[in-house]
Structure formats: C-alpha cells, structure tokens
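Subject: design request, 351 residues
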C-alpha cells in the first residue's frame, strides 16, 4: 500500500497550533489554518491568503491539502448529489449531499467496505478493506462543501462502513465537526448509525455527547435478524435492547430505530406486532425505510399501502413512526452502489 501523504485535515486546533510552533511560526497560524480547513474551506494552499507565501510554499512541498478527490458526481432530480471519492491508495468511498427546505445534510462513509455483511447492503457484499482516518471522514464534508458552496447543517454517519467499528476516528471527526473552531455544527445535528455493535453503543453512551444514535434493526426476532444481519449472531436482540435502554439512560436522548421493510420478509402484521413488543418502553422513534433493492434483487420493496398499514399498526401501539422519504432514488443513492458500478469499468487511477 502507498504510504498515506500527510494532510492537515483531521487535526484539532491544538494540534494545528503545535504543528505551526514546530515550524517556528506563532501558534495563531494554527488558528488561521483551522479557519481555512474547516470554516471557509479552500481547494488549494494558495487560497489561504492570510498565511505568508513562505509558509504556503512549504505546505505545498511537504503535504497535500485534501486526502479525498471527487471522481464522479451523480445528481438526482430532487437535488440529492451522490459523490464517489478516491483516496491516496486508490480505494473508493461514497458520500451523499441531501438538500432539504430546512437543512443541508451530508452522509459520510467511515470505512472502505464493511465487515458486517448485511445481506441487503451493496457495501457489505464486497467485504472490508480498511478504516478511514478522521481526516478522510472530514474531507468528504469538505469536498461536498467546496462543490455546493456551503458547509452542511447536518452530518449523518450512515455511508459505507460501521462507524462504531472505527471508534477513534469517528470520535475525532465528531469533535472537529462540532467544535466552534471546526465546522461548528451543533451536536444535535449529528447522527451516528450502527448495525448494533454493543461495546461501541455503550462507549458512545458514556461520552454523553447528545448526538442522535440510529440503530439498524430491520427484524424483531433473532432468527430473522440473524439471517440478514450476521452481527445479530454475536449481539442478539435482548442484549441490544438492554444496551439501547442504557444509552437512553446515560444520554437522555431518544434513539432512532431504522427498520427497512422487505416484502414478504419483515413487513407482515405479525412482524409489526413483534416490533411493538420489542420496543415497548424504549424512548425511540421508528424510521420505516422502503428498501432500495440492490442489484442482486435479494429483497424487494413492499407496496406503499402495505408500508402505511405497517406504520398504522405501530402507531396504534403508541409508537412514534415515520416513513423515510425517498431521496435520490433515480441515482441509486444507497451506499455502495455507485462504487460497484465504477469498479465494473476500467478507470485509470489518478493518484
Ligand atoms: S448496512 Fe451498514 S453495517 Fe451492514 S454491511 Fe452495510 S455498511 Fe456494513
């Protein structure tokens, strides 16, 4: 593997100040760098106009500014933009920009590939390559900000990979996204989505960060869930529910339960009843997701009437339920699909 070129993206303010001091520069240069990296992102060192030309020249010689590079962008009719980004070792990741009336959300990847092997996921089908660094996670946001001309209001860790399996980089990225000297995005505007990695859920709960934890549940009995999510064979539903209750107790935050509806598999009324039983007493919001069928066509989406019936049944049991609005369906916005297509074609590595 090619050694990773050094980039300042992913360094905290303190680290940037220390870095500048090691170059015999005043520590406020670190503050200036943080501004250009996270507040008013720029595409080149030359645009960092309040940094002396001498320092800019040295930066250009000794490091790269951005660890990610946009390879291709697909734009949906609804304005959703899906990005394929390459890394220094030619690995590919995906990120998505979702503009809505009241928010601008960026969905980022946390790993190249994923070990979790969920059967409904194009990323899981390809296996795991490596963790992303905090800089590579943050640079997805920066590349999108440079492309669309604004820093997003919300960030969701729901792209490729299991974020809690890359805990250190995740936490550092969250710190920089949230910091006043960083992106300055409110902690409540951040969502971390997990397939149910219990040690990570417990650890995140202990941080008491106040972000939203989303858990991909997708089935309310162990036998079914283990068939589509191998993680369930390690951490079963009883244990997961205990961890979620613990998370709510530690943070005071309601959790989001993601439930992807798959026709004939988990969309029957008895499935809704089992789900209601399982979630009884848990402070949660249920997000029903009409599944985006992957190429293998293993799972199909239920008809809209069936989805609404499922929602009504849960609501009758007093649960808060919404149906996720489709975004970017015409550009296959589900993670892993664009990468899969790109890899099927011969592209020259450009790093
Ligand atoms: S759904 Fe998430 S956790 Fe499961 S394989 Fe895909 S990326 Fe990994």
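Subject: RE: design request

Done. Sequence follows.
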């Amino acid at each position: 593997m090619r050694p990773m070129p050094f980039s300042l993206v992913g360094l905290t303010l303190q680290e940037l100040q220390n870095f500048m001091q090691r170059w015999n520069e005043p520590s406020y240069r670190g503050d200036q760098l943080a501004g250009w990296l996270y507040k008013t992102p720029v595409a080149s060192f030359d645009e960092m106009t309040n940094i002396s030309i001498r320092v800019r020249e040295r930066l250009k010689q000794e490091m790269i500014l951005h660890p990610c590079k946009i390879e291709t962008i697909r734009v949906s009719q609804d304005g959703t933009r899906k990005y394929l980004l390459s890394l220094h070792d030619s690995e590919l990741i995906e990120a998505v920009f979702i503009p809505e009336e009241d928010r601008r959300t960026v969905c980022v990847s946390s790993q190249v590939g994923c070990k979790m092997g969920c059967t409904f996921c194009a990323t899981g089908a390809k296996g795991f390559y490596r963790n992303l660094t905090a800089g590579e996670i943050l640079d997805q946001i920066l590349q999108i900000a440079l492309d669309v001309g604004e820093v997003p209001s919300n960030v969701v860790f729901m792209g490729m990979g299991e974020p809690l399996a890359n805990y250190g980089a995740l936490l550092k990225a969250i710190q920089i996204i949230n910091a006043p000297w960083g992106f300055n995005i409110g902690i409540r505007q951040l969502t971390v989505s997990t397939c149910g990695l219990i040690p990570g859920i417990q650890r995140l709960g202990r941080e008491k960060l106040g972000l939203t934890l989303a858990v991909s549940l997708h089935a309310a009995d162990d036998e079914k869930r283990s068939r589509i999510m191998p993680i369930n064979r390690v951490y079963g539903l009883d244990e997961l529910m205990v961890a979620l209750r613990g998370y709510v107790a530690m943070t005071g935050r309601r959790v989001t339960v993601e439930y992807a509806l798959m026709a004939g598999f988990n969309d029957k009324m008895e499935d809704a009843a089992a789900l209601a039983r399982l979630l009884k007493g848990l402070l949660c919001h249920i997000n029903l997701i009409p599944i985006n069928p992957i190429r293998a066509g293993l799972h199909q989406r239920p008809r809209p009437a069936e989805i609404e019936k499922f929602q009504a049944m849960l609501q009758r049991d007093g649960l808060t339920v919404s149906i996720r609005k489709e975004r970017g369906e015409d550009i296959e916005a589900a993670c892993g699909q664009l990468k899969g297509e790109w890899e099927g074609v011969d592209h020259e590595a450009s790093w």
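Residues 49 and 56 are 9 Å apart (CA to CA).
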